[in-house]
Amino acid sequence: MRNNHNNPSSSGGGGNPPKYPKKFYFSRRKYCVFCKDKIKFVDYKNYKTLDNFVLETGKILPGRVTGTCPYHQKQLSKAIKRARHMAFLKFVEPKRG
Amino acid sequence: MKRKYEIGFMINPEASEEDVKKVIDAVVGTIQKTEGIIENIDEWGRRKLAYPIQKHTEGIYIFINTEMVGSTFFEVERRLKLSEKVMRFVILRLDDKFKKANKLTKRWKRLEKLSRKSQENRDESSSRAESGKSRPGAPTDREVDDEE
Questions:
Q1: Is residue A39 less than 8 Å (CB to CB) from chain B?
Q2: Cβ <8 Å between A38 and B10
């Protein structure tokens, strides 16, 4: 009984790695935050929302990462640049350490 | 032709309240000379800056919404540039930005209709499909054994 039981495990470990059917990962679909809230114009004054679309170093995140539509991404990048000018956000600075 | 504008500027933190009033009155005065309308004045007060400007870490923020003629834009700009108390300023034309959004609003309406329809369909189909659910086949180890 023991031998029978051990056989399949030993054969799997010795040769090629076991073949499982391909795994599918389901990630939640990205969506445009501004379209969801129906914002027509991205304002540079509410810097707290703009801060979500900027890296720690101050770089603007691309639309394909955040999921914003091209219409809003265009406005967003302009709004961030205006916010930088008015010192709501910082300019891009190199990483420390 | 009058258009909607938004004027935002930041004043030196060392300036007294009188100085702040002077700057605001200068901007408001130039707008009212050419029969512009001032909708509201928003004073944020002192705020920390994200980075130091002229060795200051704070600034006094003021935003003015107006409706004025295009030619006064340049006068307001000139005034803000010349005054020493103002550190930074931004002047925006607002009205044309909302016109472009018409396409979007149409799209949003269409999407709302679609989502409503799909929800109705789901409610109908879910009652039917609950009984006939079939799971995809679980992964089997048998194939490995065949190879040896």
A1: no
A2: no
